Amino acid sequence: MRDRRGLGLTVAAGRLELLDQSRLPHVEQWLAIETVGAMLEAIQTLRVRGAPLIAIAAALMVAVRAEAGDDRDTLIEAIEILRSARPTAVNLSNAMDVLRRSMIGSDWRRALVEAADDLADDDVALCNAMGEHGAALIAGGERILTHCNTGGLATAGIGTAVGVIRRAHEQGKGISVWVDETRPLLQGGRLTAWELAALGVPYTLITDNMAAALMARGEVDRVIVGADRIAVNGDVANKIGTYGLAVAAHYHGIPFAVAAPHTTLDPACASGADIEIEQRAADEVRGVSGSAGDLCWAPTDAPVANPAFDVTPAALITHWILDAGVFDRAAVAADALREAAQRA
Ligand code: MRU
Fold first, then answer.
1. Taking CA atoms, which of 38, 79, 120, 340 is between 20 and 30 Å from 300?
2. Residue ranges of domains in the chain
3. Whose C-alpha lies nearest to ligand 1, atom 2?
């Protein structure tokens, strides 16, 4: 396996480590992940998260096991176990398909490891391409609102929506960012704030319920978010709360962009209605947990709904920022996303 050093994942001499994102920003702890079971636990508890990065982490885990000598049946079983670790992020099943298809010929073990390495290398390039395309949309001084975490912690590279923001900042556009804290797991408040601070991008943290009021006051010029799965008609599944932001942005006439690599496109989904939404544990809503410990403020048996993602219809999205370029509504209506998925 190739050595690599990302913000949330490293491989050195065949050893895979994850930065435990459930403890950020106050504790920066790296975990050596040696078994499929440990990777499954890390993905399901969001120690590693973000649609592109969970796909790469899972793929590299299979490569680690291949190098450790696991037999073919065991590796196929690992691929199937990891495939269903989180159901909404299609990058994960797309990556597992790539690995499964690579296991051919007498040299299948080497081909499998190379396929996993290529997925990780490709993601870096896809992020850079999205960053360039997306930054070209942004005018000087824009105040950009983003949701969840879509940066180096969510990908192998500079990120999707945060990658675009980062490139615009590096180009000297003088932008600033409203960071939605992103209940219930606070990826914005814990992770995006941490990343933007390290990059020197000016940002202001807000609670999710402040976004619409800021839009009404004319203090938001653009919304850019990531995606966990994009249907061919342009509907987008992303972190819960994205749909509400899109409705508010539409009402206020604010451009609403989704940035995602082609690995997030799902040609098998005609529309968002086909996308499975992950349901998570009730305690995530009854309180919070993190490096400071657990806090439960609701009645311990309070009935809870906890869908981790929602679907934003294409009619509310103005730009799809892909590695292949920026698509508008007319292009998406003319089947540009199906073609982008097929070309990939
Ligand atoms: O539950 P998470 O933290 O994995 O959700 C992440 C998101 O919703 C991101 O917006 C999405 O994966 C795109 S990340 C580049």
1. 38
2. 4-127, 131-343
3. 50
Residue nearest to atom 10 of ligand 1 (CA): 226
Contact between residue 149 and residue 160 where contact means Cβ atoms under 8 Å apart? no
**Hey, which residues are catalytic here?**
228
Question: What pLDDT is recorded for position 312?
Answer: 99
What class is the 131-343 domain? alpha beta
The answer on pLDDT for 291 being more than 90 is: no
The residue count of the chain comes to 344
172-195 residue pLDDT tens: 999 999 999 999 999 999 999 999
Ligand 1 centre from 239 Cα, in Å?
A: 6
Q: Which residues contact 180 (CB under 8 A, 6 or more apart)?
A: 145, 146, 147, 148, 188, 206, 207, 208, 211, 241, 245
Which residue, by CA, sits nearest to atom 15 of ligand 1?
Answer: 150
**Predicted TM-score of the model (pTM):** 0.98
CATH topology for 4-127 is Four Helix Bundle (Hemerythrin (Met), subunit A) (1.20.120)
Query: Fold identical between 4-127 and 131-343?
Result: no
Residue 192 in contact with ligand 1 by CB distance below 6 A:
no
